């Protein structure tokens, strides 16, 4: 029996779609696989944006990873990227994120695209605000051809509203969910960025960290997070807590992807001049991708921080997994220096005793008021007005028992005075006597710790870290291994993290997502 022309055409279209699906697999897609699909003609940037928008529509109602989408702007940017690729001559080297969608954390300004996205830090007080321009890192992403898809959810005010508020919660997006174990914490505050990457809603996300906000959620959601040296990436156009500690970094599913993105966003920015000028000295000639070395562990000295860090129950899965990983590191040529101890770690981990809290409260008010003053339009122009908004709009008070104590404490500060200067001196001393001394005395290339256990140790000095998936606990919750080092040690950390990742290949996609597709 002869088939009708219409039916033949339909079957041909279905066959073509099936062939494309075989050629390109969206789940666990990497920057390199996406670029390969672009080059082979199996995928366009517009098609990729549409695939991710469909996936977000299916998954986000359960996961609460996305705050706002710029669909029109993203599709227009994708069309431009496709046009650039069509016009490029054979052998032309296009920027690595070219045509690839990105979600940025909801404290990062994105003014371009179809219309300026709100950067609300999860708060209803900033709904309707519009930035005058892109954040420094967003400028660099767009320059590299990346497609800004929208903003990712977070813990409100980067987890600096009040103690005790659940990680990943904000009044704008609700409660972010861990895609592996929905009842488990997604950790904070870059929770939406991490959830979206983990659940394959997008290949590339951008987060920020003051003290643990990239490292912790990356660990709990089985993705790779890079916390760069403070100043390596610009904080201009970003709502931050502490200029001393805040940094902007990539969150992806592989070390390679995160390094591609890191390379695109580092560099001097006159709007964040002092920090980026100092850190620019650390950017290696030739970029960071040259350090994606599968043999990168060989000859590296890694210090294992045991006391105050490895607190697993005897016989636990985590203990066994880390023992296996240390054996792997040794087989790969890494030199392990075991049982190292950081002095005064109990003080470092106590934000009040270390002086970190006092400094953060003062810096937050200064940084926030400066950011608000630069907005093109905003319903609020100061921390004081935000506090008033919260008082007048009880809908914001979804969890009244927690209130807004950090905001109130920050409002009564008055710049960097004697208390804050004393805190800075104490933090500097803790850094010199702590990480810097142990690295120098033991001639280490990096320290090793489980998950985000070293977050405060690394935060107070603006030091870099890379977290890599390490395993899954008996209840299915992921955990990570962290490699940290001194300022500017990203090349060594990349070599170590990439070599470890390729030797172990721990990450697997969550299955929770399939119940909501």
TrEMBL record:
Residues 1-23 form the signal peptide. Residues 48-453 form the Amidase domain. Keywords: Signal. InterPro entries: Amidase_dom, AS_sf. This is Amidase domain-containing protein. Pfam families: Amidase. It comes from the Eukaryota.
